Amino acid sequence: xxxxxxxxxxxAPRLLIALAMLxxxxxxxxxxxxxxxxxxxxxxxxxxxxxxxxxxxxSIVTSLLAAxxxxxxxxxxxxxxxxxxxxxxxxxxxxxxxxLVLPPVVGGVTLLTAFGRRGLVGQYLYDxxxxxxxxxxxxxxxxxAFVAMPFxxxxxxxxxxxxxxxxxxxxxxxxASPRTVLFRITxxxxxxxxxxxxxxxxxxxxxxxxxxxxxxxxxxxxxxxxPLAVYSALEVSRDEAIALSLVLLAVSLxxxxxxxxxxxxxxx
Amino acid sequence: MRFPLLAATGLCLALASCTSQTTDNDDATTITVSxxxxxxxxxxxxxxxxxxxxxxxxxxxxxxxxxxxxxxINAGAPVDVFAAASTISMDxxxxxxxxxxxxxxxxxxxAVPPGNPAGIASLAxxxxxxxxxxxxxxxxxxxxxxxxxxxxxxxxxxxSSLEPxxxxxxxxxxxxxxxxGIVYRTDTAAAGDQVEQITIPDEVNVINRYPIAxxxxxxxxxxAFVDFVLSASGQRILKSWGFGxx
Lengths: 268, 246
What we know:
The complex is a heterodimer of chains A (268) and B (246).
Chain A: H1 2-9, H2 14-37, H3 43-47, H4 50-83, H5 89-101, H6 104-115, H7 122-129, H8 137-162, H9 166-173, H10 178-189, H11 191-207, H12 210-215, H13 226-234, H14 238-258, H15 260-264
Helix pairs in contact in A: 4-8, 4-11, 4-13, 5-8, 8-11, 9-10, 11-14, 13-14
Chain B: H1 2-22, E1 29-36, H2 40-53, E2 57-64, H3 66-74, E3 81-83, H4 87-92, E4 101-112, E5 133-136, H5 141-152, E6 161-163, H6 166-174, E7 180-184, H7 185-191, E8 196-199, E9 207-214, H8 220-230, H9 232-240
Parallel strand pairs in B: 1-2, 1-3, 5-6, 5-7
Antiparallel strand pairs in B: 3-9, 4-7, 4-8, 4-9
C-alpha cells in the first residue's frame, strides 16, 4: 500500500529519532516509576477493598454514561459546526473547545454557577423539583461530559469536513430523507473517527478529577470515582494510591491499545 | 499564527524565570511556608507583617490540607516551614523536620448559609438525612476532628461529600450548595457574614492543636519565621482570626 512506500522513502533525521526517543522516555518513565513502587504483594488486598471496588464501579458507570451523553449531544453539534454556515460560528467553536483549555476545577466552578442549587438553572431545578445535582452521581456524569465532549466534537467535526459529500448528495437525489442520509451514509462513512472520538471522550471522562471534585464532591459510592479515590488515598497511604492508579492505568491502556488500529487505520 | 504565539509564550516564561533568579542576590531570601488550609487568612497576615519587619525575607505560602502538605514534604518538596493543623499530620513528615512547637488551637463549628435554610440549631440536627452536610475527608485534620466530634456525641450522619480540605467545605457552604458544613471555628470567623455559625459548646467539642516546625534543610530565615509566629505579634494575629492559645 501507499502507506508502506511513504514510510521507506523518507529517511529519518537522527535528531528526529533522538527527540522521539526522548519523548517516549518522558512519557514512559513515570509509568515505570509507578510499576517499581507498586506494592505487588499487598495488591490483591488493596484492590478488593470497598473503596477500590466502589470507585472502580462508579468510574466505569459514570465514564460510559458521560461518553454516551457526549456522543448523543456532541455528534449533532459537530454536524452543525461542520455543515452549516452561521454568524458567530468561530465564537461557537471557541466555546465548544473551551473545556479543553479551562482548568477542570474552573470547569467545576462554572458548572456550579449554572447547575448548583443557587445556579442559573439549578435554582429552578432545586426550588421546583427538589433536584440537587451537586453531590450526586448525575453531577459526576455532568462534570465528566463537560470536559469530555470537546474531544468528541473536534474529532467528529474534522471527519465530517473530510468526507466526500457526493455520496450524501447522490443518496438525496435518489430520494433518501435527510435522516436516512445521516444514518445510512454520513455516520457509517465517519464511523472510524466517531469511534475514536467516543473513546477519547470516554478516556477523558475516566480520568476526570478537578471538575468532579469541585462540582460533585467526594463521597465513596456516590461521587468518589477512581481519580478522587487516588487523591483521597494519597493523603494517608501511598501504597493504596499507587494500587488504585494502577487500576486506572490498566483499564485505560487496555482500551486504548485494543483500539489503536482504529485510530490510525482507514484515514485516507 | 499559533506558532509565533507559542514561541512568544515560551520566551516570556524563559524571561520570567531569568528575572526571578537575578533578584535573588543582595542577601534577599525567599522562604516557602506550607501551612494548613485553615491558616490561610491568619498566616497571610502574619506573612505580610513578617516581611515588613524583615524586608529581605520574602514569604511564599503553600496552603492545602495538612496531610497533602506532609506528603509533599516527604516527596522532597522544597519547603522551609511546615505548619500543620494536627500533630498527626506533622508526625508524618517528622523525618524532615526540626523539633515542632505548638502555636495555636482550634475547635469545630457548624457553618450554615445565611438565613440557615435547613434550620440547623444543634449538632443533632445534622443527622436529618435531608440535610446536605459537608465534612472534611477523614484523612485531613478537620476530618479526623469531625469524626472524633461525631463519635464523642454519638451521632450518625451521612455527609454528601468528604471534602479535601476545610476551605473546600466552607466555600461550598458560602455558595449555598450545602445546608451545613463542619469546619473550624476560625473558618466561620474568616467568612464573615457570608455564613452563619452554629456554635458547638466547648464541653462537647474537639480541640485541635497546631504545631509548627522549620524543615531540616530550611535557611535561618525559616527559624525566624517560626519565632515570629510564636512571638507576641504572631500570637495576636492568630487570636484576631479566632485561634485559641496552644
